Amino acid sequence: MYLHFVIDNFYIEKFMSFVAKHFPDQEHVFVAIKQDSFKYLSSNRLRVFNSIISSELRQLVSKSDKIFVHSLFNTSINALLLIHSEALKKTYCFLWGGDVYNYWLQDRHSIKSAIAERLKSTFMRKIRKLIVEFREDYEFVRKRYGVSTAYYEAFYPVPVDFDALDEIPPRSAIDKARRIMVGNSASDTNRHFEILEALWKNQIVGNAQDIEIICPLSYGDMEYARKVIEYGKSKFGERFKPLTEFLPPEEYAKVLNQVDIAIFNHKRQQATSNIIGLLYLGKKVYLRSDVTTWQFLNRIGIKVFDTKNILSNEKEDLFLYDDKLGKENKSIVQEQFSEERCVQLWSNLFGE
Q1: Are 190 and 216 contacting, i.e. CB atoms less than 8 angstroms apart?
Q2: Where in the sequence is the domain holding 76, given as residue range(s)?
């Protein structure tokens, strides 16, 4: 039996369906520790415990052949497994990004957050293996946390599959709008204000009436989202188009297809699925050159552009893009992030 500790997230909902589809002969139990109401996860596929103090939960931990911890966001799970030290030898942890990067992006730390980081560090050092989307994230963890635990590269299934992206009808010939997507969520790690200010000052974007700014703000900190919308409207007026409702994957894919450029100003690994989907669609993507996502994509031959050039007010035409480059990027994405490859990677992990 494979035990998965999960958090309420739409990527996990997709992963649970992926496991049921491709590994029907294996027993996978998905467990969440209830903190708030669940927005994304279907309760009929999930066992929810009110706390880690449960004899039934301890039995699941003891009986499992392998344990998968999906992110380090819930530190009580780390504490539970550290208490049951015999379970650590069969535990794998999938690092998500924010669970290891956010602490290091803050100037000040509370005693509580410092203790949580010490707990994470101890947990990562004692488990069987870390799972990362790409090895550049592991290198960050190795340096920051002093971790030498073995690692394995895998990824979650892309929320919008490539076949669905292929079925999206092309943009209408009468649609002359030029669209820029900024960020992926209502989180301050997107650094919206900085990039929106830079775009407003850009000689091409600032006053052009045919340019729209698409800004996904459907999940995360809603108070932060409100401030971003207020700021975006003050700069671009009705040309600023916030997305405040969570769209089904197929509808969100149509939005991505309407975009010409996507600009991400995160200072850490984030929005990988959005980036992969956009690259598959042949879109021009900007990332900061000082994040691990940039390093990974360049390593596998994908060409992305540097957000820091926009921030430094360099006079470049953001919309200038070679379609041939977009096709080359798409080909690499098809190979690296196919569902078949995703199945193979998880199959190897479940079977090792």
Answers
A1: no
A2: 2-158+340-351
Residue 39: count of CB within 10 angstroms of its CB: 11
List beta partners, residue 131: 94, 152
Same domain, 148 and 270: no
Read off the tokens for 247: 């769209």
Instruction: Quick: pLDDT tens for 143-201.
Output: 999 999 999 999 998 877 788 788 888 777 677 889 999 999 998 989 999 999 999 98
State pLDDT tens for residues 195-243. Answer: 999 999 887 787 788 999 999 999 889 999 999 999 999 999 999 999 9
Residues 65 and 177 placed together within one structural domain of the fold: no
Distance CA 50, CA 275 (A): 35
User: How many domains does the chain fold into?
Assistant: 2
The CA distance from 213 to 181, in Å, is 6
The structure tokens listed for 219 are: 């999940």
* Dihedral angle, C-alpha 96, 281, 261, 194, nearest 10 °: -10
Q: Does 104 share its domain with 197?
A: no
Phi-psi region of 37 (alpha: psi -120 to 50; beta: other; left: phi over 0): beta
3-class DSSP string for the chain: CEEEECCCCHHHHHHHHHHHHHCCCCCEEEEEECCCCCCCCCHHHCEEECCCCCHHHHHHHHHCCEEEEECCCCHHHHHHHHHCHHHHHHEEEECCCHHHHHHHHCCCCCHHHHHHHHHHHHHHHHCCEEEECCHHHHHHHHHHHCCCCCEEECCCCCCCCHHHHHCCCCCCCCCCCEEEEECCCECHHHCHHHHHHHHHHCCCCCCCCCEEEEEECCCECHHHHHHHHHHHHHHHHHHEEEECCCCCHHHHHHHHHHCCEEECCCCCCCCHHHHHHHHHCCCEEEECCCCHHHHHHHHCCCCCEEHHHHHCCCCCCCCCCCHHHHHHHHHHHHHHCCHHHHHHHHHHHHHC
